Input
Amino acid sequence: MEGLVIEGEVESPCSLTFNDLASLPDQIDDLSTVVPGRTGGAVRLRAIFERVSVAPEATHLTCESSEGGFAASVPLEAVRAAVVAYRLGDGPLPADLGGPLRFFIPQVDECARGEVDPCANVKYLARLRLTRGPGRDTRPTTKREHEELHERED
Ligand SMILES: Nc1nc2c(c(=O)[nH]1)N[C@H]1C(S)=C(S)[C@@H](COP(=O)(O)O)O[C@H]1N2
Ligand SMILES: [Mo]
Output
């Protein structure tokens, strides 16, 4: 596994492996307690942010998928409760659950409803980039675009 790259407006950019993620504080043993209906184990984003020391200038978080094809950029205040799911039991999160790494923002409701929505729950997460102002964002904005994306996805 290549790990999770954290870069941009941070003091200590790094790449975190499965074991690195597992040794961070703020673990969630049962993801369904924060994101109903989802299985696996996760670590809170705030533990990752503390590890890299986010710069005060950062305003947005951009999450990018490993194939580089999908990205979402959201304001930092909207991701205070976000988590990175990274395991199922003792192994990595399987691809059918969006693994090996998947971003989740708890309590978002409908797609294409503003800056923070379930579309920002990036699957196959490879990179977290802290930016000044919004970064790359490929989320579908219309219902039509959304339907087209989901047809491609499965
Ligand atoms: N890598 C990647 N992540 C993605 C997408 C995608 O196409 N590629 N689609 C997004 C959208 S639009 C939605 S609504 C959710 C759907 O996640 P689910 O199928 O687990 O409900 O994943 C998001 N994460
Ligand atoms: Mo979506």
The chain has a mean pLDDT of 93. The first strand starts at residue 4 and ends at 8. Residues 4-153 form a domain with the Sulfite Oxidase; Chain A, domain 2 fold (CATH 3.90.420.10). The chain has one domain: 4-153.
